[in-house]
Design a protein that fits this description.
Arc Repressor Mutant, subunit A; DNA-binding
Length: 105
DNA sequence: GTTATGACCCAAA
DNA sequence: GTTTGGGCCATAA
């Protein structure tokens, strides 16, 4: 059931600590869906407002912000991350070497 | 059941 | 570290 995958993805995203970011592939793998990174994004898009999932802590491989493209948060994500202590690079990019979340254990 | 699209990832240049 | 091309899975029409 697809709904079950959403629960897993939510659980993984919820594990992301403040001031850290994770990539879709990382989440997909941790959620038990290797190679289904796209589905993670699709799930986040289907996430309800009361899901309590910090989707703004989820970025793509290059640490770039991935929004839906339709002026949806257009920088809201950046603001939220900055609020949590995440530092952005010159062109709206994050230094994954420092801020990429390490589930490690 | 098939076609088309998507908040992506990986390997190579 | 960034960009280009190819590929995987799931949802929608």
């Amino acid at each position: 059931m697809a709904n079950d995958n959403i629960s897993k993805i939510e659980a993984v995203v919820r594990r992301i600590p403040a001031g850290k970011v994770a990539t879709y592939g990382q989440i997909a793998t941790l959620a038990g869906l290797p190679g289904n990174a796209r589905q993670v994004g699709a799930v986040l898009g289907n996430l309800p407002d009361d899901s309590g999932v910090p989707w703004h802590r989820v970025v793509n491989s290059l640490g770039r912000i991935s929004e839906r493209g339709s002026g949806t948060s257009e920088g809201l994500q950046r603001h939220e991350l900055l609020f949590e202590g995440v530092v952005f690079s010159d062109s709206e990019r994050i230094d994954l070497s420092v801020y990429q979340w390490k589930h490690k254990k």
